[in-house]
Design a protein that fits this description.
single chain; alpha+beta; 8-stranded mixed beta sheet; 7 helices; 12 strands; 29% helix
Length: 238
């Protein structure tokens, strides 16, 4: 069955209303446009994100159901504390953004292809240079073994991707992210599309209208001027 998608003009900065997104495939809203800083920041502030495979046009999505970590939903439980103590891992913020993006884009055992294509990598590197995108890094013996990256919209962190090279590295990155975010905001983390791994960690789901309401509220929150500057992070036991 043929589907109609609005095609965005790179010269015009706009998106269709997210209520016009398709039901099948869920959330597909538009195609085309570009990956400029201005368009990407407008997208995230509108509840929209890009996602496309090699050979596809640039596609924009706003799914009917989002995966989201509510404040304080990520717990530094006894099992994770024991793993943390044994593994001699350390955490940083914005020390190696480009390396984290490359780590997320690398082929995986059950996912040989990636959607984080070179144009996407370059786009998020530009967002990082403009102070919109951030990374959490996990280190072991001075080697990068895990991490995540995403975009901040006020008090909401819109997660893009994460990776592990040692067990639980991504869990520690998520935990550190929520703790760091909660120092000036409630600690909401948007994970876009639900999957078993996120749900196992405690991610819930939220429908589009409630997500847009949350996004509007969180977009009004400002972070302290130095909050996202590169630094070492620690994990609190709470």
């Amino acid at each position: 069955m043929a589907i109609y998608l609005p095609e965005l003009d790179p010269a015009q900065l706009w998106f269709p209303p997210v209520e016009r997104a398709l039901g099948q495939p869920d959330g597909l809203l538009a195609m085309g446009g570009d990956l400029s800083v201005a368009r990407l920041t407008l997208a995230y502030r509108s509840g929209i994100f890009p996602w496309f495979s090699d050979g596809d046009p640039l596609l924009w999505w706003s799914p009917a159901t989002r995966a989201i970590f509510a404040p304080a939903s990520l717990k530094f439980n006894r099992t994770l504390r024991k793993t943390w103590q044994r593994s001699a891992l350390s955490l940083t913020l914005n020390h190696a953004f480009d390396e984290v993006v490359r780590g997320c884009a690398a082929p995986r055992k059950n996912q040989p292809e990636t959607w984080i294509l070179p144009p996407m990598q370059q786009a998020y590197q530009r967002l990082h240079q403009h102070g919109h995108a951030h990374s959490i890094e996990v280190w072991q013996d001075q080697q990068l073994v895990g991490g995540l990256y995403g975009i901040v919209v006020g008090g909401l962190f819109c997660g893009e991707s994460m990776f592990n090279r040692v067990p639980d590295a991504a869990k520690f990155a998520l935990l550190a992210l929520q703790q760091h975010l909660s120092r000036y905001a409630a600690g909401w983390i948007d994970c876009q599309i639900p999957n078993p791994f996120l749900q196992q960690l405690g991610a819930g789901t939220i429908d589009r209208p409630h997500y847009l309401s949350l996004l509007q509220q969180q977009a009004k929150i400002s972070s302290p001027h130095d909050h996202w500057q590169p630094k070492w992070l620690s994990l609190a036991n709470g």
